[in-house]
Amino acid sequence: MTLFRWLRPLLIILGLTACMLTGSELLARALLWRSSALTDRVEVAFGYSPGGYGDLLPNINSVERLYPIRPYFLQTSSVGLRNTEELNDDPAVFRILAIGDSFTYGFYVHNQEAFPARLQERLHELLPGQFQVLNAGIPGYTITDELSYLEDKGLRLEPDLVILGVYTNDIFDLSPPMRQYFAREVVLGQAAPAAAAPDALRTFLRDQVALYSLWRNVRYGFVEWQVEQQVAQIIPDLPGIHRLYEDITFLQPQAHQPLWDEYEQTLRRLIATLAARNIPLVIVAFPDLSQHPAAQNMPD
Predict the structure, then answer these.
(1) Would you write out the chain's pLDDT as a tens digit for each of its 300 residues?
(2) Three-state secondary structure along the chain?
(3) Which of 19, 32, 112, 239 pairs with 90 at a CA distance of 20 to 30 A?
(4) What residues does 256 pair with on adjacent strands?
């Protein structure tokens, strides 16, 4: 009797706990749960590789959520270029190499929406199968990084034409504070580790237990919030960074002439490097919204 007197409250507690968990599981399945194909979130796979022909990690096939409000599809080839298809080795195919920063890479847009992919789509409409446009853009790069990439990897692709994407922040990105974050040697040091194989128990729980799936969604929501906070720290860590960008680029460029001179000298080196190999260069310039006088009172 004494043993039963001790066991009875324990059994009641266990029974109530089991009933609560079962009820919560049934409620979650009835109201909130969807299959893992819809709710599963992809770990951020974006990273940089010192090998291959491109600076991105090879064989990425994921949805990137650097900002949860603007996810985008990222796919890279086996050589680390932001291309859906692999390198075309046919010597009859005219190979175009696009280099530049996030405007060339296509931040926050899907693979097929980046301008190199749009260019290839248009060329295929005109002359099917005769062109391949390779996207080697990397967010944060400027002229020094683009020349470094060309000398290190890009020229080994033997391009028939190089497109250099130029954005108004390229001069600003040569400033020491920005080099601290976005220089190519810094970026390449941020290579992401290889993803581990999925755990069998976690896979079973994810696919079969609604409460576990809901917990994962809450957890990943918190992780995304942490990533967003970390990204937001870049600007507060650099006081007056937007004003510095406007001064260097638009308002007081003469006060920052060394940065402009550095850009010009490096651009001339890039042009000479390509000219020595008889590779034509096309420069595509992307304007900044700040250049709209009516909107930001900037000079024409």
Answers:
(1) 566 666 777 777 777 887 887 776 666 666 555 555 444 444 446 789 999 999 999 999 988 877 666 789 999 999 999 999 999 999 999 999 999 999 999 988 999 999 999 999 999 999 999 999 999 999 999 999 999 999 999 999 999 999 999 999 999 999 998 998 899 999 898 766 555 555 677 777 667 776 677 766 666 666 555 555 555 544 445 667 788 888 998 889 999 999 999 999 999 999 999 999 999 999 999 988 767 666 555 555
(2) CHHHHHHHHHHHHHHHHHHHHHHHHHHHHHHCCCCHHHHCCCCCCCCECCCCCCCECCCCEEEECCCCCCCEEEECCCCCCCCCCCCCCCCCCEEEEEECCHHHHCCCCCHHHCHHHHHHHHHHHHCCCCEEEEECCCCCCCHHHHHHHHHHCHHHHCCCEEEEEEEHHHCHHHCHHHHHHHCHHHHHHHCCCCCCCCCHHHHHHHHHCHHHHHHHHHHHHHHHHHHHHHHHCCCCCCCCHHHHHHHHHHHCHHHHHHHHHHHHHHHHHHHHHHHCCCCCEEEEEECCHHHCHHHHCCCC
(3) 112
(4) none
Structure tokens at 245: 């960008």
Tokens 């250099």 appear where?
164
